[in-house]
């Protein structure tokens, strides 16, 4: 009898094909299947010699080729296709088999699928996978959520497939139900904020200082040697340095309309539901939405012309100020994202281990960055509970950056350059460290028009002023 595969991969587009190759290269037998068989043929003809592949053209043959209890990674378009594939698989599966959804599924869909398949005596793992094409092949960051018992079955495989940093795999058990996909969603939200901050720094260099793409690339390459060291800063330098066949910087020819598949928007929506002030990520989503209105922006520019900015060569101090503003804003984005994870964990009973999330994001994924080590240390020491910004390393960093941060946001405002992520991060920082803000007036207004009541600083209870009658204050509860 032919040897059975250790794992199956269904869906062989860029992510699935590379995950299958990754597993095969690590010595696992991999059954592979794709709805349209041409992708299966292509994978086997190009990379079949990399390991023990079991290609199948029928879903029954695919399932039959895997050792029981069968772990099957599905890597298809998020949404309806995941439900369709699950339904196609179910008749061929046996009790205890494990479906692992490795796509970017919405965590509430994962919750639903988890319970649906549990009722059918099948096991389901919603596993966030990050790293793009290269990460999937060389070692991604993986965020599996489901039962610990189901995870134990796949642990020897996925921890070997994942990226490794300092001997530790960038994969750990996250928690029950859709927790793995929730964590991946917030990862992507942070990715949105990181990229928005980078584009704002780029815009300042380009529009205020008139620098060309190559010069800006050199600045980012330099920044990548310090505390901003990260995959996204590294690839920013690479994208800006790229010259196309016309001999000009490629970036100058790319249309300035950002697309999005949904994970950033979901992160912002979840933050609204949870009551988290997730300003940086949400501004990044809005910035993409505004960028997508290209024709409208061109029309508005004609009707609302702005004075051209007189370019001036930046001094080393000007460049350093933008770096500091970027670093401080990045800290705020991560602090907000981790607060969202912490609140969701409590709300949904997931018991997320925030230090372990920082650990598995240090390698393989798109937001991998040197300073995740600092986040890991903060949470490992039992800190970070109220807000990452209050932890020593991050507090020192934002205090140091504060003057430059204000200067950069001021420069952008004066120059008419939108920096929504820089400025909203600064506004959040200023709001966070104010023991008394202006919401007292807001409460007064709510009470005026809607008798919504207010609390007082000088005595306990809830109060209402009879604004439209005798103007007297009455206590409505103790
Ligand atoms: N691309 C990336 O960088 C990353 C993607 N992801 C996520 O991973 C998943 C896969 O991504 P990617 O590899 O880019 O591929 P796509 O999201 O482009 O999906 C294409 C794959 O889905 C299959 N598919 C679509 N509809 C169906 C259906 N109804 N039934 C069966 N199969 C279907 C396609 O099969 P067929 O060939 O037959 O059309 C193909 O294999 C997505 O959820 C994505 O969001 C996660 C991290 C990074
Ligand atoms: O999950 C990913 C990286 O982590 C995918 O690349 C995802 O597609 C990125 O999101 P968007 O397409 O909305 O920019």
Automatic annotation (TrEMBL):
Biological processes annotated in GO: D-gluconate metabolic process; pentose-phosphate shunt
Top-level taxon of origin: Bacteria
Residue positions of the active site: 184 (proton acceptor), 191 (proton donor)
EC number: 1.1.1.44
Enzyme class name: oxidoreductase
Record domain 6-phosphogluconate dehydrogenase C-terminal: where: 180-468
Residue sites binding substrate per the record: 104, 130-132, 187-188, 192, 261, 288, 446, 452
Pathway it works in: Carbohydrate degradation; pentose phosphate pathway; D-ribulose 5-phosphate from D-glucose 6-phosphate (oxidative stage): step 3/3
Catalytic activity: 6-phospho-D-gluconate + NADP(+) = D-ribulose 5-phosphate + CO2 + NADPH
Pfam families: 6PGD, NAD_binding_2
UniProt keyword list: Gluconate utilization, NADP, Oxidoreductase, Pentose shunt
GO molecular function: NADP binding; phosphogluconate dehydrogenase (decarboxylating) activity
Chain's role: Catalyzes the oxidative decarboxylation of 6-phosphogluconate to ribulose 5-phosphate and CO(2), with concomitant reduction of NADP to NADPH.
NCBIfam families: gnd (TIGR00873), PRK09287.1 (NF006765)
Assembly behavior: Homodimer.
Family: Belongs to the 6-phosphogluconate dehydrogenase family.
Name of the protein: 6-phosphogluconate dehydrogenase, decarboxylating
């Amino acid at each position: 009898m032919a040897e059975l595969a250790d794992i199956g991969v269904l869906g062989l587009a860029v992510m699935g094909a590379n995950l299958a190759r990754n597993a095969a290269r690590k010595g696992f037998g991999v059954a592979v299947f794709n709805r349209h068989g041409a992708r299966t043929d292509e994978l086997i003809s190009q990379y079949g010699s990399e390991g023990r592949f079991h290609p199948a053209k029928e879903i029954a043959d695919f399932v039959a080729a895997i050792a029981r209890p069968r772990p099957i990674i599905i890597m298809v378009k998020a949404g309806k296709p995941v439900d369709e594939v699950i339904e196609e698989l179910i008749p061929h599966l046996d009790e205890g088999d494990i479906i692992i959804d490795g796509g970017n599924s919405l965590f509430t869909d994962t919750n639903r699928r988890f319970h649906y398949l549990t009722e059918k005596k099948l096991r389901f793992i919603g596993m966030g996978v990050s790293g793009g094409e290269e990460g999937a092949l060389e070692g991604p960051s993986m965020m599996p959520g489901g039962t610990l018992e189901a995870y134990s079955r796949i642990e020897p495989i996925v921890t070997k497939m994942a990226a490794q940093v300092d001997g530790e795999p960038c994969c750990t058990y996250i928690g029950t139900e859709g927790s793995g996909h929730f964590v991946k969603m917030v990862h992507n939200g942070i990715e949105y904020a990181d990229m928005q901050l980078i584009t704002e720094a780029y815009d300042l260099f380009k529009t205020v200082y008139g620098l060309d793409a190559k010069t800006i690339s050199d600045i980012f390459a330099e920044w990548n040697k310090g505390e901003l060291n990260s995959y996204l800063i590294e690839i920013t330098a690479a994208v800006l340095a790229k010259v196309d066949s016309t001999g000009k910087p490629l970036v100058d020819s790319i249309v300035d309309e950002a697309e999005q598949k949904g994970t950033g928007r979901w992160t912002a929506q979840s933050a609204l539901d949870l009551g988290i002030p997730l300003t940086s990520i949400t501004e990044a989503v809005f910035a993409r939405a505004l960028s997508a209105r290209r024709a409208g922006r061109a029309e508005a520019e004609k009707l609302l012309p702005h004075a051209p900015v007189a370019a001036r060569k930046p001094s080393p101090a000007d460049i350093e100020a933008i770096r500091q503003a970027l670093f401080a804003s990045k800290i705020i984005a991560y602090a907000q994202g981790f607060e969202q994870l912490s609140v969701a964990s409590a709300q949904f009973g997931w018991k997320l281990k925030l230090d372990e999330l920082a650990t598995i994001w240090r390698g393989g994924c798109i937001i991998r960055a040197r300073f995740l080590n600092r986040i890991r240390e903060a949470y490992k020491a039992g800190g970070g509970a109220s807000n990452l910004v209050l932890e020593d390393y991050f507090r020192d960093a934002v205090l140091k950056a504060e003057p430059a941060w204000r200067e950069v946001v001021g420069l952008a405002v004066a120059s008419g350059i939108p920096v929504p992520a820089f400025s909203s991060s600064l506004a959040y920082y200023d709001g966070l460290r104010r023991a008394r803000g202006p919401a007292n007036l807001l409460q007064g207004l709510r009470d005026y028009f809607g008798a919504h009541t207010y609390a007082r600083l000088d005595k306990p209870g809830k109060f209402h002023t009879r604004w439209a009658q005798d103007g007297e204050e009455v206590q409505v509860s103790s």
